[in-house]
Amino acid sequence: MAIAKGISRADADASASNVVAAAPDPAAPGPAALGAPSAAAWGEGLAYPEWIRGMLPALHDGFTVVNKYVGVPALKMGLGRYMSNPLTGYLMILRTRGRKSGEMRDAPLGYTIAGDHVYCIAGFGRPAHWFQNVLADPHVEVILPSRAFSGMAEEVTDPAERRRVLAPLLRSMGVIAGMVGMGNPWRDSPEEIERKCEGMPLVRVRATGLAVGPEDPGGRYWVVPLAASALVVVWWLRRRKKA
What per-residue confidence (pLDDT) applies to 12? Predict the structure, then answer.
């Protein structure tokens, strides 16, 4: 199933924003099967600047809350097309199966499309729960701003492919790539970007079938027009009462 044929050019040009954000699987064990990673483990093996590594545990906890109560619900309601832009980046939902709970877990991630694959990166490194879930079960679902599909995910281990994909992935992150020290994709060489992203697994997803999108039966986009209609009715009633 060719991604490029089923995705609009806007999506093809779109990419990642919150690459360091990923909703964790709270019921799943850590990478060493001993529970959640320690504070030190979040920065281990990553090439972030020292001041960023010290903030990773707090950033992880903050993103977990924002993703759970804001990011994931908004993307499921089909608001990704309004949230994504070249300044703040582009977001998708990667749905993985919890390696311990067996339940589907949603992680809002930045993405880019190259050829027939969707790519994303684990900005928190290998301990990221969604990445550990992919290693345990590569069957995933992807919800892009305009469509959804099921697919097979795998880590990119080819250095040449990694260098080729990292630059466009970071370019679509907007301002956050430079802010967290992942490199300047407009200025740095592919080799320099690869060095700065050392320790962050790059994952590619190949589409294998269809999945439920925000506007399909079972999706949540219906909430948006319903809420908008309710607001219009309330505004009209209040205006009529004043008249």
Answer: 42
CA distance 87 to 29: 35
DSSP designation for 85: B
DSSP 8-state code for residue 37: P
Residues 6+ apart with CB under 8 A from 40: none
10 Å CB burial of residue 218 (0-12, 13-18, 19+) is: exposed
User: Alpha-carbon distance 109 to 20, whole Å?
Assistant: 8
- For residue 163, with 0-12 CB atoms within 10 Å meaning exposed, 13-18 middle and 19 or more buried, which class applies? middle
Each residue's pLDDT tens digit, 181-226: 788 888 889 999 999 999 999 999 999 987 766 655 556 655 666 6
pLDDT beneath 70: ranges in the chain: 1-43, 212-226, 228, 243
State both tokens at 17: 């924003």
Tell me which H or E stretch contains 194.
helix 190-196
CA distances (Å), 74 to each of 19, 68, 112, 148, 217, in order? 17, 10, 20, 15, 17
Residue showing tokens 């832009």: 85
Residue type, 16: A
Phi, psi dihedral angles at 236 (to 5 degrees): -65, -40
